[in-house]
Design a protein that fits this description.
The complex is a heterodimer of chains A (about 300) and B (about 500). Chain A is mainly α. Chain A has eleven helices and no strands. Chain A has one domain. Classes of the chains: A mainly alpha (about 300), B alpha+beta (about 500). Chain B: GO terms for molecular function: ferredoxin hydrogenase activity; NAD binding; NADH dehydrogenase (ubiquinone) activity; nickel cation binding; oxidoreductase activity, acting on NAD(P)H; quinone binding.
Chain lengths: ~300, ~500
């Protein structure tokens, strides 16, 4: 019983803390730019605003446009239910979980892209077409990278991967770890739509990818789309922590250990958010047709990681 | 500056202009006017050419009667004349025979046909019923996989209105059509009958960021008519204001270009430097955009020795920071990759379209009014005019950087060499129906003001050929072959103003 409660708490934690992570990234970027920037709580105010606002819907919008935010949001919650945050146990746990994560991301992306085209706005369609271009490359790379991580653990069950990572030898000694870590970092940036792939802060419609697809949304649905994007970001960060820096994640249900692990996870998420802000600040957006190169670098890294795993 | 006039019959226009061009005349613009008020039947077209380095302008004039107000087009010989002839067609109803593209330019398709607002018999506040269902015609690309992307006139950022039609294949642009003049305010019509003193305030408000340059062009045109000799101290101070304007624009634009590629570090540091320069402007003349600094016959306010020293120390600080930031930007390999070979304007097109300013110079078209047709105190100062061969975004970026560095030097010379004395002289009465042409180099290129005065020191006809007006036609030509996400960057690298193009 206590397990289930904790597992539900884990899901609520990620959903609840995801706007804060976004806030930390934004605030850090502002400080690095020499600005004061909005408070780290701003995404919560935004969310509150969107969820209480009226919507403006295009007369061309079909049911697809209307249900997409719910599909995307529910998909993200389903993924959250599968990833260990501060205990290794999760609500959903089975072999092949890792594959399902990739496909659930694919599902949400599929619906978002269709919704972008649905209203007939040229910016939405441009965003969708670009997102499909990027994801056609990013998805297989994500697959291979996850495989590179799963291989040394000899399972595709996330609970097992994490618990083996916690108990096993320090991964810092293995070259497999560094290669897979770099590949995964590139994917985190791609999947969260950040510079140098996409620019989440731009107002230039012509350069948008993710923002272009959700340009026609307003009010509650926009709120849900934004929240889903933040949750996805929190998921990617948590996965990075689970795979590469799992220290402190609690294996058993024990009072003081849980509190320690909770604090650790929170600190680690903050650090990752700050690191991502630094990465974003030190780069500019790369030329659109150069994105494949970056992703093929991630691909090559994961392949080498898999090979070293067999060789060493 | 000397103006030599060549008056010919309409059918001799082409021949006369060809002769002027053969004598190294550089086409500047065409000014049409309705001169029925001075007993001329009725329209006059004036093609203006500059002789760089000789301080001389050629004006080829021809009178068109009301019964037969058509003339042979020069656009096929001088592509740069196309816009001016289309504009005259819209506003005066005079017809350039054989013009390759006579679609409406200034007044959009919703304007009723046969109504010409710049004719003298059109009342200033006369309203017209607009036909909002009229369609806009433009060339289209057809074929499988070709799509059209309409953008604007309202954009997501707080910027001026312009409509762009991209014909694309995937993300690659095949053709771009730009529709401007959404902010046509009828400034030229409004000025008619205004006293020349009031006209200066209007000139300053043509554009926000080139206030000094527009004001200076205007007062130079008037001073040319009245043959006023502006005091030495005033011409040096004019240079000071003009260069301060160039500086805050170039520094701001350099940061702003990086916004096109999401390089936030450069954007914010550029904005920070621009702010320091604008606060300096505010401190010395009491206006962040330097408005109200130029007066007819001189400048409005003297700059004390103390203020000059303050300018010196501030600029010293800004210059150091500016160099550091540009070095940082240019050593970033993503920036270099995005800027290089993007939006190339070839030298041939830059010349044919008579582009001006940093845009022209970055495409190896070496023109600069400050050196070629010197005004104010520029002939007494030492400076270089940098140029680049490439004509891409990178060249325009570096062009602004090098020009800003020259501006720092020019200001330094002005601070140390400004003589003592008067800052203003009265301009006296103006001979009715004489005209003057004022030219200055704004941060975006040469601003040309044609002013013809009427009776009692009023304006009879005022025509502004701003730098963006000359450069806008080049933008849609540079874009095909690039991808849509590069358009904001290309557009920012030209940094053209809509308001002073539309007037």
């Amino acid at each position: 019983m206590i397990h289930v409660l904790l597992e539900i708490l884990q899901v609520i934690f990620i959903i609840g803390v995801s706007p804060l992570i976004q806030g930390i990234v934004k605030r850090t970027k502002a400080i690095l730019q020499g600005r004061q920037g909005p408070s780290v709580w701003q995404p919560y105010y935004d969310l509150h605003k969107y969820l209480n606002k009226d919507e403006v819907l295009s007369i061309h919008a079909s049911w697809l446009f209307l249900i997409t935010p719910y599909v995307v949001f529910v998909t993200m919650i389903a993924v959250v239910a599968m990833i260990p945050v501060f205990i290794t146990h999760t609500l959903l746990s089975f072999t092949g979980q890792l594959m399902l994560v990739v496909y659930l991301f694919g599902l949400s992306r599929f619906f978002t892209a269709l919704a972008g085209i649905d209203t007939g706005s040229s910016f939405g369609a441009m965003g969708s077409s670009r997102d499909m271009f990027v994801s056609a490359l990013a998805e297989p790379v994500l697959f291979i990278t996850l495989l590179a991580i799963a291989l040394p653990m000899k399972t595709t069950n996330l609970t097992l991967i994490t618990s083996r990572a916690v108990t096993g030898h320090s991964p810092l000694l293995s070259p497999t770890f560094y290669l897979a870590f770099l590949a995964f970092l590139i994917l985190v940036i791609t999947e969260t739509g950040r510079i140098p792939i996409d620019n989440p802060d731009t107002h230039l419609e012509l350069t948008m990818i993710h923002e272009g697809m959700i340009l026609e949304y307003s009010g509650k649905r926009l709120g849900l789309m934004m929240w889903s994007a933040w949750i996805k970001q929190a998921i990617m960060f948590t996965l990075l922590l689970d795979f590469c820096f799992p220290w402190g994640i609690s294996l058993v249900v024990h009072g003081s250990m849980l509190i320690a692990s909770f604090i650790m996870v929170f600190l680690k998420l903050t650090v990752i958010a700050i690191v991502i802000a630094f990465v974003e600040m030190s780069y500019a957006k790369i030329r659109f047709f150069r994105i494949p190169r970056l992703l093929s670098a991630a691909f090559a890294l994961s392949i080498i990681s898999i090979l070293t795993n067999f060789l060493l | 500056m000397k103006i030599s006039r060549i008056i010919v019959a309409p059918h001799e226009l082409i021949h006369a202009c060809r002769t002027v061009i053969a004598n190294h005349g550089r086409f500047i613009t065409m000014v049409a006017s309705d001169e029925c008020g001075r007993e001329i039947d009725r329209f006059v077209v004036r093609y203006i050419f500059a002789h760089d380095g000789k301080s001389m302008l050629n004006v080829v004039e021809s009178v068109l009667t009301e019964s037969n107000c058509s003339y042979p087009t020069l656009s096929s010989m001088i592509p740069a004349a196309s816009w001016a002839e289309r504009e005259a067609h819209d506003l005066f109803g005079i017809f350039p025979e054989g013009h390759p593209d006579l679609r409406p330019l200034v007044l959009h398709d919703d304007w009723p046909e046969g109504v010409y607002p710049l004719r003298k018999d059109y009342a200033l506040r006369e309203k017209q019923e607009r036909d909002s269902f009229s369609s806009w015609s433009y060339p289209k690309v057809e074929g499988e996989g070709v799509f059209e992307v309409p953008v604007g006139p309202i954009h997501a950022g707080v910027i001026e209105p312009g409509h762009f039609r991209f014909q694309v294949m995937g993300d690659s642009v095949l053709h771009l059509e730009a529709k401007l003049f959404y902010t046509h305010r009828g400034i030229e019509k409004r000025s008619e009958g205004m006293s020349v003193v009031k006209g200066l305030y209007l000139a300053e408000r043509i554009c926000g960021v080139c206030s000094v340059s527009h004001a200076l062009s205007y007062v130079q045109a008037i001073e040319q008519i009245s043959e006023t000799r502006v005091p030495e101290r005033a011409i040096f101070l004019r240079v000071l204001f003009a260069e301060l304007e160039r500086l805050y624009n170039h520094v701001g634009d350099i940061g702003n270009m990086c916004a096109g590629i999401g390089y936030a570090y450069a954007v914010n540091h550029g904005a920070h430097l621009k702010e320091q320069l604008m606060q300096l402007n505010d401190f010395i003349v009491g206006h962040r955009f330097l408005r109200g600094s130029i007066a007819l016959g001189g400048v409005t306010e003297d700059i004390t020795e103390e203020k000059l020293r303050y300018i010196e120390t501030t600029l010293e600080r800004v210059k150091k920071e500016f160099n550091e930031i540009v070095e940082q930007i240019l050593s970033h390999d993503i920036v270099v990759n995005r800027f290089s070979n993007t939006g190339i304007l070839s030298e041939r097109i830059a010349r044919e379209l008579s582009t001006v300013g940093p845009t022209a110079r970055a495409s190896n078209y070496d023109i600069d009014v400050r050196r070629d047709l010197p005004y104010a105190a520029y002939d007494q100062l030492v400076f270089e005019v940098p140029t680049f061969m490439e004509g891409d975004v990178m060249a325009r970026f570096k062009q602004r950087f090098l020009e800003a560095r020259q501006s720092f030097q020019i200001i330094e010379q002005v601070i140390n060499r400004t003589p003592k004395g008067d800052i203003r002289v009265p301009i006296g009465d103006l001979i009715p129906y004489s005209f003057g042409i004022g030219m200055t180099e704004s941060p975006r290129g040469e601003n040309v003001h044609f002013v013809m005065v009427g009776e009692n020191n009023t304006i009879y006809r005022y025509r502004v050929r701003s730098a963006p007006y000359a450069n806008w036609p080049a933008v849609p030509i540079c874009v095909p072959g690039n991808i849509i996400p590069d358009f904001p960057l290309i557009n920012k690298s030209f940094e053209l103003c809509y308001a002073c193009c539309d007037r």
